[in-house]
Amino acid sequence: MSGHFGRARYFALVDVEDNEIKDIEVIPVPFKEHGAEVVIVYGMGRRAMEYFNQLGITVVTGAYGKVGDVVKAFIEQVLEVDPYWKEKIEREKEKEGHCRH
Predict the structure, then answer these.
(1) DSSP conformational letter for 37
(2) pTM for the complete prediction?
(3) Which residue numbers in the chain have pLDDT < 50?
(4) Cα distance between residue 39 and residue 41, in whole Å
(5) Superfamily for 5-96?
(6) Distance from CA of residue 50 to its chain's centroid?
């Protein structure tokens, strides 16, 4: 998983049927609508979350690990997420001098 949605160079579209991973397609950014129901990320900004929510797409933040492992854990409803993802990203931005506060 990329640490920040807006900086990801690729997205993995995972096709799940009957709680089984059927296909994984890696596509470069930007991407067009692919019929997604859920977006699983580590970090994502408010505007991106609102965009997906307006499309009826559920956003799960704080996910980390290998894509296949994350999707499997999500399917099995045992996905552990980092509840402090936003604070960690803000600290990284401050270290890099990108914080707008």
Answers:
(1) S
(2) 0.70
(3) 30, 32, 101
(4) 6
(5) Dinitrogenase iron-molybdenum cofactor biosynthesis domain (3.30.420.130)
(6) 14
